[in-house]
Amino acid sequence: MRVIGPDAEQLGVVVLKRALDLAQEHELDLVEIAPTAKPPVCRIMDYSKYKYDQEKKERRIKKNQHVSQLKQIRLKPRIGDGDYQIKLKQAIAFLEKKDKLKVNLMFRGREMMHRELGRKVLEKMIKDLEGIGIPDKAPSQEGRTMFVLFNPVSEKIVKKKPEEPEAKE
């Protein structure tokens, strides 16, 4: 088998017994890296330290990840202004946490005859969430529900506006 030393130097092709002796001399482990290679490749290393470093790297990657969830908010066409503001604050909080948002507008009874009122509420929501969330498409309707999906605005999309030069006096 081909043996690689603890400092990543090639120690050559040796028999198993000699490779184990080399690992014992360095007080390290003999780890098989490429078993299908001809000849198989082994490395002399501290395996427990290697496993610890791998777990540490995975934890760091996992810490920086955010799993996006789909949050939903339900509205009605004749929503009051105070209630609308509360729902708007919830929507902003969801989008700032980088979650997707689905705004459902429920029609009941004769409200179906006045879909334009519901569309106005959703258009107002789209206008108020401008810069925080991007709607996937125009509001669409399925049965008694009209909805719109929002994606959070990423930092890559948002471009800082150039600062305006100060006026000379």
CATH homologous superfamily classification of the largest domain:
Translation initiation factor 3 (IF-3), C-terminal domain
- Summed up, the domain count is 2
Compute the gyration radius: what is it? 30 Å
Which class best fits the helix and strand makeup? alpha+beta
Shape: rod-shaped
SSE topology string: EEHEEHEHEHEEE
Distance from N terminus to C terminus (CA atoms, Å) equals: 81 Å
Strand content: 25-35%
DSSP strand tally: 9
Note the main attributes of this structure.
four-stranded mixed beta sheet, Ubiquitin-like (UB roll), five-stranded mixed beta sheet, 169 residues, 4 helices, rod-shaped, Translation Initiation Factor IF3, alpha+beta
Descriptive account of the structure:
It is a single chain. This protein is an alpha+beta fold and 169 residues long. The protein folds into two domains: 2-64, Ubiquitin-like (UB roll) (Roll); 70-152, Translation initiation factor 3 (IF-3), C-terminal domain (Translation Initiation Factor IF3), CATH 3.30.110. The protein has four helices and nine strands. The strands form two sheets. Strands 5, 6, 7, 8 and 9 form a five-stranded mixed beta sheet that branches. The protein has a four-stranded mixed beta sheet with strand order 2-1-4-3. A hairpin with a 5-residue loop joins strand 1 (2-4) and strand 2 (10-13). The N and C termini lie far apart (81 Å).
